[in-house]
Amino acid sequence: MNQRKRNSWLKLIALNACMLSSLLSTDLLAQTSTDKPTQIEVDLTKDKGPLKPIWAWFGYDEPNYTYMKDGKKLLTEISKLSKVPVYVRVHSLLVTGDGEAALKWGSTNAYTEDANGKPVYNWTIVDKIFDTFIERGMKPIAQIGFMPQALSTKPEPYRHHWKPGDNYNDIYLGWAYPPKDYAKWSELVYQWVKHSVAKYGQKEVESWYWELWNEPNISYWKGTTEEYIKLYDYTADAVKRALPTAKMGGPEVTGPGNEKSHTFFKAFMDHIVNGKNYVTGKVGTPIDFITFHAKGAPKLVDGHVQMNMGTQLRDIDKGFEVVASYPSLKNLPIIIGESDPEGCAACSEDFSPQNAYRNGTMYSSYTAASFARKYDLAQSRGVNLAGAVTWAFEFEDQPWFRGFRDLATNGVDKPVLNVFRMFGMMPGNRVEVKSGLAYDYARVRDESVRAEADINALASKDARSAAVMVWNYHDDNVPAADAPVSVRLKGLPNKKVTLHHYRIDKEFSNSYEVWKKMGSPKNPTTEQVAELEATGQLKELSAPESVPVTSGEATLNFALPRQGVSLLKLSWD
């Protein structure tokens, strides 16, 4: 055999070997994908009470984005995805300034003083922000803060000019300090609530939540714990004087699982119940709802992002434990004022590579899996969870898909927003999802998701429909085979049932993947923007189909990619 023929023969052998290897890999993958489907059982007859819309709460640092072009567009979309009013929480509603929008900054100039030290109130920008919410049927969580420059005990320096990559600790300047005059502060709060009632009506303002400050246990508050408690007493008194039926709460501490934060939280709660009120001199202080924050902790491991859902759930659980330890307060509504995979929405991926989960489907699958466990944690502690604020909005006029923790980029929705669209389609009451799956809330809380994938579901029903949200989540963002899933439903009517199957994965409801396929354009054309806007919406995996029901039961089989989320929406006449 000559050398040329020998080489050709060797190439043929190599090609056949490669094809055989590929076939074996395909067969193995098929075997893996079909032999052991994850069995999920949903029993529509086992009612677990109302599926509270705890997801219909959003917030962001930069209040002036509210009434800007993309801000208005996104708020409109958020308002439409929910059957109930969406609550919105923003920072810096009393900060001094000209209303310029910037990262981690905002201002309204609501309070200044004249040359004689007399207060000057100007509600123009605050009203513009709240008008934008209310025009869309949304409700403000009216955050009372931060300190106007004329009232700050350290008025200079006052404003920061932070950008990604800068030292985060440099932002806490004059706006973070206690007031030099508590009486003037109290009058400011009183005038704000009184003005709101005059402008929007008592019934409307009674539906809002009024709260004091943000994360006073860390550098957002440059006073002591006792000074914050004093400020709360003056603030609550002012709110209730202006509108006795207003809902007032706090303290918005972050990380209650941390010893220092836990100590602050307990000191505040002790004062609410047993402390001497700084204004009235009596025991106790009004509170209508309780707030705290909980965050996860992603990091880079071997070149990929590894989330830590357990960290977030442990903080939530500890916060619930604190509230439950006060018999007179444990039934009050709890709002997790910020509930996210990590702590800095404005820390972009280019400077914080551990945040690379934000543009794609890892953020959406994390959101589905973590919200489901918040219901379980609240139930296990016997507390009243009203809402969990997703601290993510949009960042006006920033590069496309820069990697901020946001819901949209330049007016184009990111995959995570479609999870909230799914939540908005879930009806009525929560129903039982059969236990025995790899993870329950306790295991995710204690271990996070580091072994097998968390493939699980949240389900609900009303008289004429049911919905099952199924996710395939893992803390490690690495490739994996699609998971075969079999959802068995019990308690269906013995009549025609129609299935709509919605999906978020690399191929569906995913503007980010489409943008990458376009070549990641820095300035997409008008046609490209239109395509991105369309692909950012929630899509169906396939055409609607009729589901055969036998003796009230049906089984739905499908493959679910890693970090994918499906919503199975069933309806009948």
UniProtKB/TrEMBL annotation:
What UniProt keywords apply to this chain's record, in alphabetical order? Glycosidase, Hydrolase, Signal
What residue range is the signal peptide? 1-30
User: Keyword Transmembrane helix on this protein?
Assistant: no
Stored Pfam families? Glyco_hydro_39 (PF01229)
Q: Which residues are named in the active-site annotation?
A: 215 (proton donor)
MF annotations from Gene Ontology: hydrolase activity, hydrolyzing O-glycosyl compounds
Domain called Glycosyl hydrolases family 39 N-terminal catalytic: residue spans: 39-537
This protein's record includes keyword 4Fe-4S:
no
GO BP annotations, alphabetical order: carbohydrate metabolic process
The record's InterPro entries line, in alphabetical order, gives: GH, GH39_cat, Glyco_hydro_39, Glycosyl_Hydrolase_39
Task: Give the record's family classification.
Answer: Belongs to the glycosyl hydrolase 39 family.
Q: Known PANTHER family for this protein?
A: ALPHA-L-IDURONIDASE
Q: In its UniProt entry, what is this protein called?
A: Beta-xylosidase
Q: What is the lineage of its organism?
A: Bacteria, Pseudomonadati, Bacteroidota, Cytophagia, Cytophagales
